[in-house]
Every structure is written in C-alpha cells, then in structure tokens.
Amino acid sequence: MSVSVEQSASQAAREGSWPAIPSERTWGSLGLFGVCVSAAVATWVFAIGGYVSYYLPAGYGTVAMIAGSLVGIALVVLAVLPLATRYGIDTIAAARPQLGTRGQYLGLLVMFLSVLGWNALLMVCLGRAAADILIELDVVGNGARDAVVILAGLGSLAIVWALLRGGPDVMRNVGVVVATAVALLSVWVLWLLISEVGWSTITSAKPAYATGSHTTDMMLGAETVGVTNLSWWAYIGGMTRLVPTARKALWPAILGLGLPVSLLSLIGLYAGLAVPDSGGDPTAFLIDAGGAGAALPALAFILVANIGTTMVGVYVTSLGLKQIPAVQARVPWNLTTALAVLPIAIVVTFFSGWFTDHIGSFLAFLGVCFAPLCGLQIVDYYVLRKRRVSLQAIFDLSPGSPFHYWAGLNPAAIAAVAVGAVVYILLLDPVDYITHAPFQYISASLPSAASAGLVYWLVAKLLVIPAGRGGYAGDPPVAVADDPDAVREPAMS
Amino acid sequence: MTAMRWEEDEELAERIRLVEAAHVPEHDLTAGDHVLVVLVCCAVPLVMMLAGILL
Fold this sequence. Notes:
The complex is a heterodimer of chains A (493) and B (55).
Chain A: H1 3-14, H2 29-40, H3 44-53, H4 58-87, H5 91-99, H6 104-136, H7 145-164, H8 167-197, H9 199-204, H10 214-230, H11 233-240, H12 246-274, H13 283-290, H14 292-321, H15 325-330, H16 333-350, H17 352-367, H18 370-384, H19 391-394, H20 411-427, H21 439-442, H22 445-464, E1 478-480, E2 483-488
Antiparallel strand pairs in A: 1-2
Helix pairs in contact in A: 2-8, 2-12, 2-14, 3-10, 3-12, 4-5, 4-10, 4-11, 4-12, 4-18, 5-6, 6-7, 6-14, 6-16, 6-17, 7-14, 7-16, 8-12, 8-14, 11-14, 13-14, 14-16, 18-20, 18-22, 20-22
Chain B: H1 10-22, H2 31-54
C-alpha cells in the first residue's frame, strides 16, 4: 500500500470501525486508566450515592457500593474486553458474533440512546450547577439562569468536540489530566463536606427510606452501583481497543471504571445522609456553608468531571456510528463526532426541563438490557466458541456471513435479551425500585445475566448450531449467498 | 460497503490479515487472570456483602 493509503486505512481504524493493527494500539495501562477514571467520574456519582443514602447508613452503604461496583464491572469486562483487545475492535463489532449482522444495530441503538441520554443529562446538570453557583456568587442575576444553563452546556460541548478533533491520542492525554484533577477535587469536596457537617453527623445519620429489611437494603445499595457499572458495556470496547493486549487493559478497566464510581459516590452517600434534602448533591449545601471558597472547587469538579465523561461518551458513540457502513465510508471523523454531539446540544438548548423530568425512567429501562447482553456474550465466547472467533467473519456483512444468522438476526440473542430483561423487571422494578423476592438474596442483575446466558445457550444448542449458523465449531461450510456455487469455510480462527 | 464481504475492500482485507497474523495467544487473558478477576470481583464482594448483612 502507498503511504497515503496506509494513512487513510490507519485513520479509518483509529477513528472508525476497522480493527486496529498493533502499531496503532499505542495506549498503555496508565493512559487507559486515566481515560477510564475521567469517564467514570461525573455528577452521577452524587445521584448514585444519594440514592443509596435512602436505604443505608454510611458504613453499610460504603460496603454495599464497593461490592456492587466490582460485580458489575466484572460482567462487562468478561463480556467485551477479551475480543475488543484481541482484535482492536469496539463494543458493537465485538457483539456482532452474538447479535448478528443486522442485530448489531439493536446493540448500537441501545448504546447510542444510553450514552446520549447520560451525556445530555450530565450537560444539563453541569449547566444548572454553573447557574446556581454564579447566581449565588452574584456574578449573574436569577433572570439569566436559563441562558447560563444553555451557554454552559453548549460551551462544554464545544470543548468536547474540539478535544476529539485530535482523535483518540488527545483523548488519552486529556484523560490522564482529567483523572488527576477529579481525584484531587473530589478529595477536596469530600474534605469540605466532612469538615462542614462533622464525621459523627454522617456516621450517625439514619437512612430516610430504609425498607425494614437490612438484607434488602444492602442488596439495593449494591444493585444501584452494579447496574450503573453495567452501563459501561457501551463504552468499554471503544476505550480498550487501542491497548495492545488484554492483560494490559484488564486491571486499568476494572480499577479505573468500576471502583471510582463507588468510591466517588461516597460523596453522594455522605451528603445524602448529612443533608437529606440534597439528594446526594453537596454543592448547594457547600455554597451555603462555605461561600465562594467551597463553591469554586465544587464547580471545578463538576466542569472537569462532566466534560471528561462526555468526551469519552461522544468518542465511543462516534465509533459506534462508524459501524454503519455508509458513515464509515463517507463521513469524516470530525463530522461524525459532530453528529454525536448534535442531539445533546438540541436537548440542552430546547428540552432540558422536559428531558430531566422523563429521562430517568427511560434510562432505567435501557439499563436492564446490559446485564442480559453481558450474560449472553460471556456464554457465547467462553462456553460455545471456546474463545475462538474469526475476525474475518466479524467484518463480513454479506448474507453469506456466518453471523448473518436469519435475516441478520440471531434468535438466540433476541430471546436471551428478552428473558433477561423480564427476569430483571420481575425482581426489581427499575423505575420505582420496588423489589420482589428473592431479590434480597440474589440481586436483579446477576440472575438477569445468568438467565440470558442460559437461554442463549439453549437456543444456540437446539436451533442455531444444528442449522449450521453462527460459525460455531463443526459447522459445515456456509454457502455464499451472492455466489451460490461458492462455499466458505466455517468461521474459526 | 453495504452488505459487503470483507475481501472486497482491499484496505480492510489487508488490515484483517495483519491483525490476525499479529495475534499472540499469550496476550489474551490467562486462566490465572480469570481466577484473579473472579476472586477480586466476585469472592471479595460476596464476603463484603455477607459481612455487611450478618455483622
């Protein structure tokens, strides 16, 4: 290949859907850890911790949140990371063997809506926090609140888009800076909170809405953080694909994505217990108690953390959009990131009030898809395929592809996601958080993932593999649809 | 590139060959890695939850 063709192909891989070759996979463990932390820490940690504070006091809440975060991130890591790091591919490409060549678009839709929803929420929260603090400090009047919310949100999105113009390497470098900044700022915010309200106040505070069953409360605390970490399914492939080996990516992903959510959510937990009306968000209280000295670090934390998270979200969404062949072939990287930013900008500008009133339930229902997806991917990769998946087959989108299944859809995956989602909702209503036995002993995410994995295995064994679909071991050669005389070898590497 | 086979795009085909040729099984997660993940992310949380519930 000529130099220009090589550069074009390299760009198509690093800023697109193609697999990245080893020389392009330049992220080390530290770089990945930084990006993971910058993605993990955002103002959602206040909401998560605040929610747990409804059910658990400080000590038990700390234990439950850390435990839940580790279980959630383990499912995501085992489902996506091995294939993403082996071939340098993102989450959607890594899910193609299970979801099918057309079913992948369902995965893309879930990813796009989830990341879009969360990012828009973060930008609205950022704008509102900026408005609150600027009004409190008399920098602007109350009449300018809406304008400040919109300007702060759009300005932050412009920063995100500008940063991503530099591609994944800029994101990696910025990620380390953001991770360091949010770590320092979060320690400062936590110290301010504890010094203002007193440690004994926090540890002696009682949860406002404890169910009366300590076991159920513990499981609710763990589930809240666990299901949040399952949302990293949408992110983790795009974040780890440029790390050269799975072993280099494993612990930075677990410790960078999983643990910070629970550790930083302690701010929300302690704030929620000390100031029950805060919902876990300490900024208003800190402004009242500490004035500008407390407000500015809080504002800096919110700005840096939310911009860092949105940057990674827009990046992985853009990679996902590149899985659409027309986007990969015709839309340049800067326009793709703009397409990922645009819906967030529209929400921030025109629908922020309506959006924040309604998005919670929508995101909760989307969230129940991630545990089944992880469960079926783990069973497919480890049990059915014995960790052998053909890269050629992943990028074969023709009707003759082993992953074309039936009309591009894998009935095993559809059945598994449906059953897993139903199991989740039967155990825990994701909107109202009403539990049903035996939730208090087994949670909702774990049985959801397990039941999805079992259904996937059953349908694959009874229907898919006997039909010679899916490229599993022992398949007969697959006829190529657009060339009836040709046959293709089974998709095993 | 709609509904194409990977062989039809020369750049993509070359890239797939390079990635497959460069794959080293030792770079994948080992059995030890998986055991460690299960210990840290399943056994430890289980013990934490049991301690939190029972103590």
